[in-house]
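User: Show me a protein chain along with its predicted structure.
Assistant: Here is one chain, sequence first, then structure tokens.
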Amino acid sequence: MDPINDLTVEALARAKGLDASRLRSDFGLVDCHYAGLPGVRIPYLDADGRWVFDKIRLSDGTCRRAPAGGSNELYGLPQLARTPVTTLVLLVEGESDVWAAAQHNMLAVGVPGARTWRRDYARTLTGRKVVLWEEPGLAASQLVLAVARDLPRAWLATADAGAKDLCALHQRHGSHFRQALAAMLVRSVPIVTRAAALIAASPPPRLAPTYYRRAAAAQTTTEYAVERARGRSTVDVLERRGFHVKGSGVNRTMHCPFPDHDDAKPSFSVNRETGAWICFGCCRKGGDAIALVRQLDGLSFQDAVARVAE
């Protein structure tokens, strides 16, 4: 991200050509200071409008997350939840594209980054008409492949040289944004068609030295372990550790598993389908079983993955 001196919501809006009052009212952006720098606090909310975490954009162009750690979420879920399933959804990278779409009364949902797609995101978008906006670059191509795997009925619009993302399209065309976007959507293709072309264009693997082959094998093993761990049910992980989880619906309850929190009544809630969990007593929370084991056992991400994947 480009640095913006004396960053505020108004300064960010000017740089993006957006309405600052709408960023504050519709998306909850506020001015802040963090690590001695001026910045903008961008709240991420779940579909019910509940706060999940803040992304803090700083004047030097860097970003922070508060609280640190935890799993990412799609951006723009409250707006998605309030919109009929027949409405077209633009799947984009980052927050500013979501803001630009909203300024023109279009619906967009942001992936936190090109390499942060998770399979459970697809459940949020299943049954809707989704168009992924493909930005330039290798990471964007990897996002296309991941989304094609999980949302094979989605479509894909590829950015042209004049506008790499929706916000750039807004800055370039202003009030004619919708017409420019419509012209791009007319040229959209099924995402599986683009994914097949990307796979076909991939260069054949070269024979690597032994240590490269071993590194590649280790990376593959790590990716498999992460995929396996993320597929583990948080409820099952808790029950394997001897905790009694009550209830039969989607949301289950139990006494808090953290030893430093002695709750008289069950205050810990876990979603059976998504794996997300929260303790309303000690305020710890996370998005999956990996996050739970990391916090329970004080482990690194890699060690927690190994323990959950066992």
